[in-house]
Design a protein that fits this description.
heterodimer; A: 77 residues; mainly alpha; 5 helices; B: 186 residues; Rna Polymerase Sigma Factor, Chain: A; 0% strand
Chain lengths: 77, 186
Amino acid sequence: MTCTEFLAELDEMLDQDVAIPLRADLQEHLRCCEHCEITLNTTRKTIQIYRSHELYELPDSLRERLHTAIMAKCRKC
Amino acid sequence: MQAFEKLVRQYERQVFRIAQHIVQNREDAEDVVQDAFLKAFEKLDQFQGNSKFYTWLVRIAVNEALMRLRKRRTGRMVSIDEDVETEEGSMPRDLADWSPDPESMYGQSEMAEILRKTIQGLPPGFRVVFVLRDVEGLSTEETAESLGLSIPAVKSRLLRARLQLRERLARYFKKRDSRSSQGGAK
């Protein structure tokens, strides 16, 4: 398996959605390719970091103001 | 009206986050949230139960957000197809491994700033796919439906968004005392 073929399956690897025979080929490639191992691990970490940080919080005061404005507009129409 | 208010309560946070990721500006995001829920309310009779209400609502919100971006750019067309033809991200270049615990390298607010800045650098068509799929947790099918894209298009953009983000974050999270790996792509 080449790196390009491995990359084509990267999302499936990350989402753990790989058929068993293909999984064995991918694991075999990972054993001898540091480049793809790093790519897989750091891409996985990228997703985890974005999932665990709330970048755009909606503060309660703003949420209440927005909610009131939405419902007022809906009642008018 | 009461049932709709319940839906607003349930989804306002998510819609606000998605809107802000697209328009990258709090005031515009507030307008997008209001307009999206209003439009959803007006079109409620057009909602067909064959998709989830949330997926349908996200589609409305994404369209509103893109329209808002277009207004801000004085009428220049903005679509989720913009800038997606770039070759960047199709093959990883930076081979350096990351620190085992990159989050310990920065304070909480500094980290949030790095993550915001990094994701803001992606073309909108990649950014929105990554946000819906990886941050908000929609399935590939729901993401495709929300954006009016095919499933292969979502998969291709997601891969490239993930790789571009990884590549851009590497400059912050690299192991500080190691040299880049010498192994290259085959």
